[in-house]
Amino acid sequence: MKKVILVLVVVIAGYFINSKFIDLAYSLGFAELKKEAVLINSEKMKVKCHSYAFGWFDEIKLENKFQACVNEHKANGYQIIESSST
């Protein structure tokens, strides 16, 4: 029983520390960028283009690399079936 309580306390403390760290990081100017697109062609072959960054980064450069990946696959006959970004 003591082990269960100890594990529960550790999990709750870990969650609290993690949430405070993320809030502190965002207040210091850190940012997170996450984009993903799934493309499929006529032969039902799927490919993924993704871009992820956390910290200080050049958003335009990351967006250009992501878009270049999508454009390259579209030129080869792929179509976007799923896309997400945050």
Radius of gyration: 20 Å
Name the shape in a single word.
elongated
Order of helices and strands: HEEHE
Describe the strand arrangement of the main beta sheet, using strand numbers: 2-1-3
Q: Mean of the pLDDT scores?
A: 87
Describe this structure in words.
With 86 residues, this protein is α+β, with helices and mostly antiparallel strands. It has one domain (2-85). It has helices at residues 2-27, 59-75; strands at 31-40, 46-55, 79-85. A hairpin with a 5-residue loop joins strand 1 (31-40) and strand 2. It is elongated and about 60 Å long. The mean pLDDT is 87.
Helices and strands, with pairings:
Elements: H1 2-27, E1 31-40, E2 46-55, H2 59-75, E3 79-85
Antiparallel strand pairs: 1-2, 1-3
